[in-house]
Fold this sequence. Notes:
By secondary structure, this protein is α/β, with parallel strands linked by helices. It has helices spanning 17-30, 42-47, 61-68, 90-101, 113-129, 155-173, 195-198, 223-234, 256-260, 277-289, 301-304, 311-329, 380-386; strands spanning 4-9, 36-39, 51-53, 104-111, 134-139, 182-188, 213-215, 239-245, 292-297, 335-344, 347-355, 398-399, 402-403.
Amino acid sequence: MKGNVIVGQSGGPTAAINSSLAGVYRTAKDRGAKKVYGMLHGVQGLLQERYLDLSDYIQTELDAELLKRTPAAFLGSCRYKLPEIHEDRTVYEKIFKILDKLKIEAFIYIGGNDSMDTIKKLSDYAIITGHPTRFVGCPKTIDNDLALTDHTPGYGSAAKYIGTSVKEIIRDGFCLEYDKGLVTIVEIMGRNAGWLTGAAALSKGEDCDGPDMIYLPEIPFDLHDFSDKVKALLAKKKSVVIAVSEGIRTKDGTYVCELGSSIDFVDAFGHKQLSGTASYLASFIAGETGCKTRAIELSTLQRAASHAASRVDILEAQQVGGAAVKAADEGDSGKMVVLQRLSDDPYQCGTEVKDVHKIANDEKLVPREWVNKEGNYVTDEFVAYVRPLIQGDVSPVMVDGIPRHLFRPYDL
Length: 412
């Protein structure tokens, strides 16, 4: 590489997103990049000319290892939607003026569906104007809903945390007995795709029966059928644990969380903030059965638990970061790196690049055949798909009994 590289992080963070950042930095420096800049809070921060030189923070091998073990977006994130090119070119003119000022050869963006929309629009503008900067997307999302890639970095660690946490919740549920039983409802992230919620099935094994039911957003949710099934379970056992996606909806498309209260916050991409599904269902079941209920939201814990990260996930996150730089250095633009599964036993996975126009604003959902006929559990095929992604551990660097992270001042 003869010029400089700039990298940004966008959308919801993960336990592995900074491993991709480390992969971008290491590969860019190995390929001769003079500077590797980091956008502070993604393209929104870039528009404000907020960026840093990553070499000021990654100075030793230990710094790089700490970065890989640091959860959340080290550079800061954003949910900023670029306008359509034909609607407002001034935003693009400003961005490209900044890229020229910094002598940027490659622009790498680490993110999910909405982030790939940014790569698509910037690469299209570069083609229209004949600008030489190359734009490549690096996949990241715990939702695992990016098209054309077998899976996404960040998902494996979140799935590992979910499987572990649900198993511990199940164990806890048997500690005390209640006259009418106990129903625990665990709410897991996933707006339209149930990849995360399905990972609750990983808790099932020789020492654990797993959750009693799992509800994904791909399947319409029937409140009364749900009540009947819970009652039938309570007739057989004292503790019932159910995993539900935050995004489950009734047949008419109403989010279950909207049955309890209205949703006020909507982000720049039109996504409603979903919360309260478990709380609503717990209250509903308590009223229906008179049993004790608990609502548990894993919330940000499932994407921030770097202490429980999957080694496979961390390594693959670093791999796709490096592959994004390599692709840009070799002339690719308007592309996203994808993971291509080569085999399950032994598990092997490689990288390719695909046209970002076929990925941006699309969603990969859980196949219907990976959900049982009743629509309340995932199949063995789903579990076989996920299990290789959660293997191995990444030991935190412990200081005074607490994991050490790579730090930067967040008021920059």
